[in-house]
Write a structure and sequence with these properties.
Elements lengths: L2 H6 L14 E3 L5 E3 L7 E7 L4 H15 L6 E8 L3 H11 L5 E4 L3 H5 L7 E6 L3 E7 L5 H17 L3
Parallel strand pairs: 3-4, 4-5
Antiparallel strand pairs: 1-2, 3-6, 6-7
Length: 159
């Protein structure tokens, strides 16, 4: 990945390492396994409905992967410790639709070093962590899009 994309990442000792595989229940009653998406770029956003910056970030983070083919990029919101009805009400109120997984005890959040939210991790093909962003500022979705673009370019270049 180019120096430009690397400079978009917040310093994290996870970058370049294999993401911890996990299995979590989804908001809609299914099961999400990270390893099932090893052939994709996964944008994993740790969040909660009560978090103002998370609410501001969600539309940008949802739209970033939408610019790419779904067969290559997958967005998942990882909700920390909230009941399903509260999450559904939030999504309905915001008129948003997103794949949501439920990290009831913040076990997966701890494995990804989450100490503040929103905490966004871009995981490349092969489940390698490529980018970590903590917090939200305007334009964050564009930065995530740039990382996704570079990862997809590497894929087509054979890199």
């Amino acid at each position: 990945m180019s120096d430009n994309a690397a400079s978009l990442s917040v310093g994290s000792d996870l970058i370049g390492k294999l993401a911890v595989d996990f299995e979590l229940p989804t908001l809609n009653g299914g099961i999400f396994r990270l390893s099932d998406r090893a052939d994709k770029v996964v944008v994993q956003d740790f969040r909660a409905t009560w978090c103002g910056p998370c609410a501001a970030a969600l539309p940008e983070y949802i739209s970033a992967p939408d610019a790419f083919a779904q067969k290559y990029v997958f967005f998942v919101a990882t909700n920390l410790e909230e009941p399903r009805d509260r999450i559904r009400a939030f999504l309905d109120c915001q008129n948003l639709s997103s794949d949501v997984v439920l990290d009831r005890g913040s076990v997966i959040a701890r494995q990804f070093g989450v100490s503040g939210i929103p905490h966004t991790v871009v995981i490349g093909p092969g489940n390698i962590v490529k980018h970590v962003r903590v917090g939200f500022s305007k334009g964050a979705g564009e930065q995530v899009s740039a990382v996704i673009f570079e990862l997809l370019e590497e894929r087509t270049d054979g890199g």
